[in-house]
Amino acid sequence: PVRVHAGFDTDDISREAAAGARFTSLVPTALRRLLDAGVDLSGFGAILIGGARIDASLLDRAGVAGARVVRTYGMTETCGGCVYDGVPLDGTEVRIDPSDGQVLLRGPTLMRGYRRGAEATSEAFDPEGWLRTGDAGSIRGGTLTVHGRLDDLIVTGGENVWPSRVEDALRTHPGVGDVRVEGRPDATWGQRVVAIIVPADPGEPPPLEALRDHVASTLPRYAAPRDVIFVTELASTTSGKPARQIPSPG
Fold it and tell me: Quick one: which H or E segment has residue 93?
């Protein structure tokens, strides 16, 4: 049986786990909240994580708690997940467009097209039936790694910066509770890297230069944030996906 809850609640998931549910499907934000609440997730055969990229620190934390996390990749146009832990389902083909690094998909789970959207359908598919996902990725040893949305890529001073990699670096700083990184227009650099941070201690947020040095210890200096905005929580969509929108300072 499949049970669909009206909304996310840590107590609901805890009860499902205690009742012997074998699987649950979550977004990374929900998994983090379950771990924060101390919910025992070890009873699940697998926890499917999709909707947004899961960072390495959260994945490690879940493993320490005994949770078996399976990363899923897919979208509405693929009828849900079609790649699990980087490996496509049988019959699903994945390749990378060499011109822009875009992930292309083809297979039986793909939609036939958008309802009453012939023009949008023709834009979504190439002449050979490959779906243009809008995501950038790479394939090594038959395993797909998704780097992020192509339109999320920050180009600063001619250098490419993936927000997810900067976020991963910042999350290892002890003063950072949670973080989102985005690009903001800059007259000199084209775009500058901006970090939106929930500080671990609201009364003592980490200084910008300390954050820049921390990022530069593992990534090129140009990837370090040039601005930081401190918030009490990060915006998300109703499904728990990150809402990439920089708030106005103040």
Answer: strand 93-96
